[in-house]
Design brief:
Elements lengths: L1 E8 L3 H21 L5 E8 L6 H8 L4 E4 L5 H15 L5 E4 L4 E3 L3 H9 L7 E9 L6 E3 L3 E2 L6 E2 L15 E3 L7 E4 H7 L12 H11 L3 E12 L12 H7 L9 H11 L2 H41 L7 H8 L3 E3 L4 E2 L4 E4 L6 E3 L4 E2 L4 E4 L4 E3 L4 E2 L4 E2 L2 E3 L8 E3 L2 E3 L4 E2 L4 E2 L4 E2 L4 E2 L4 E2 L7 E4 L4 E5 L16
Parallel strand pairs: 1-2, 1-4, 2-3, 6-12, 13-16, 14-17, 15-18, 16-19, 17-20, 18-21, 19-24, 20-25, 21-26, 24-27, 25-28, 26-29, 28-30
Antiparallel strand pairs: 4-11, 5-12, 6-7, 6-11, 8-9, 10-12, 22-23, 30-31
């Protein structure tokens, strides 16, 4: 059995490097687990890239078949070039549509071999289940539906978390090009992708619908798993008016008006096509306006926060500082924020809650961007303490963030220059020694210290005090 893996590329050399590395790792895993398995050929079709993609592929993967388009022809023309070569030269049995920005499970091809060996899939296009890159189980694609009466294109389960109930084969109306296995007989029956009408977007949907009309079926199989970085795909407005107008007329945009209308007119009535395009474009315009309003609001809030951190928090008046700080936090009765304390704030929400009779000494930093900081009563926070609620995932390929609330109980004493990380809970009466880094929860009445902070001893105080800030200017 011969399978040709078709990968169109256009610039993006760093993404191509990662994508091919992931693909070849999966193929190596397959070869190491199958003595007499299927034969795979990787076909990269370069769409007139201006960066050294061709040189990289030739130097790094000499076994890869490299084809080139004569001019910038867009994705579906490149897929046609690859498929024609696979049929005429390699006599391939299946085409596996791939993209340069997806990662596959290492056992992907082992699973694929088992599926293709099953006769019930002989006349079936098999799509992979696609997850968002950076998330283990957040679904992007698990089968596509299309309603010819209403023109609605649907992605069931998209943006939802995967679980056992969704581990079923999904019968679909269409498939994309993220790990899609197409029998060669499909191309012989319905011809290739319509590269003239749909050079980039809608080509895969159009091909799928034609295949279904010709009697082939389409499924999304949950055992075939890939991860796609959707942020790298397609031209969108990204909050820019200029990009918005460009995206209405560019082949690289899913919002090109002419392509939208051409597709809907082919598969629905003229009236429905007009409605679908108008509805889609209206939603797109609204998203631009919302993005612009958020940008303006964010700018104002960022400026306000900058003024507080740069000037207002240095005002030599406890009364004025405390009242100004209430724009960004909930500050309890008789509590004080001393000079030069910085606040990180997310869209103006008051994520920081401080109870009664608390004293926050100079040069502290409170991170209220995502998670909440909840501080009880009579808490003493020494100078230069940092409390984080947001941090990056160390092992994440995409350096994504994660956040968690920080909860500090009554009568806690935090020593100078200590750091408390996201998601930590500190029990009532606990003591944090100076220069400590708190990474885990601390039980009540426990004194901890070090990097990372570890228990030292138990605090014996009955905690009968109320903190009073007697300073007026600090």
């Amino acid at each position: 059995m011969h399978i040709s893996i078709l990968i169109p590329v256009f610039n993006r050399i760093e993404i191509v490097k990662q994508g091919l590395n992931s693909l070849y790792q999966a193929l190596e895993y397959y070869n190491s687990h199958n003595a007499c398995g299927f034969k795979y050929d990787v076909i990269v079709i370069d769409d007139c890239s201006k960066d050294p993609v061709v040189d990289f592929v030739n130097a790094t993967y000499p076994s890869c078949i490299l084809l080139k388009s004569k001019k910038h022809a867009w994705m579906n023309a490149c897929l046609n070039i690859g498929m024609k070569y696979a049929e005429e030269v390699l006599n391939t049995d299946y085409a596996l549509l791939w993209t340069d920005d997806i990662d596959a499970r290492e056992d992907y091809f082992v699973i694929l071999e088992g599926l293709l060996a099953d006769e019930k899939y002989n006349r079936t296009i098999i799509a992979s289940k696609v997850y968002y890159a950076g998330f283990d189980n957040k679904i992007f694609f698990s089968g596509g539906l299309f309603n010819r009466k209403t023109g609605k294109i649907d992605l069931p389960n998209s943006n939802s978390t995967d679980h056992a109930e969704k581990h079923e084969i999904q019968h679909s109306d269409w498939a994309g090009n993220w790990g899609v296995v197409i029998p060669a007989e499909v191309f012989k029956a319905i011809n290739y992708f319509d590269e003239k009408a749909f050079p980039h977007y809608y080509g895969a949907i159009d091909f799928s619908l034609r295949a279904v009309n010709a009697g082939f079926s389409i499924i999304c199989h949950p055992s075939l798993k890939v991860w796609n970085d959707v942020r790298l795909t397609g031209l969108k407005h990204d909050g820019s008016i200029l990009k918005y107008f460009i995206s209405l007329f560019s082949n690289s945009s899913n919002y090109k008006i002419a392509t939208d209308f051409k597709f809907y007119k082919k598969y629905t009535s003229f009236t429905t096509a007009v409605k679908c395009v108008a509805r889609k474009q209206a939603s797109y315009l609204v998203s631009l306006l919302i993005s612009l309003m958020k940008t303006v609001a964010y700018y104002v809030l960022e400026l306000r926060l900058f003024l507080y951190n740069a000037f207002f928090n240095k005002i030599p008046s406890k009364f004025l500082r405390n009242n100004l700080s209430r724009c960004y936090m909930v500050l309890g009765k008789h509590s004080s924020i001393r000079s030069n304390c910085r606040i990180l704030n997310y869209f103006g929400r008051r994520q920081i809650v401080i109870g009664r009779n608390c004293i926050v000494n100079p040069n502290c930093l409170f991170d209220g961007r995502k998670g909440k900081i909840i501080i009880g009563n009579n808490v003493s926070i020494s100078s230069d303490v940092i409390i984080y609620t947001l941090q990056h995932k160390v092992d994440c390929d995409y350096f994504m963030t994660e956040y968690g609330n920080v909860e500090i109980g009554d009568n806690v004493w935090i020593g100078a220059r200590s750091v408390i990380l996201a998601g930590v809970k500190i029990g009532r009466g606990a003591v944090i020694a100076s220069n400590s880094v708190v990474t885990k929860d601390i039980p009540p009445m426990t004194m901890v210290g070090g990097i990372p902070a570890k228990p030292i001893r138990t605090r014996k105080s009955r905690l009968r005090y109320n903190l009073v800030d007697k300073h007026f200017f600090q």
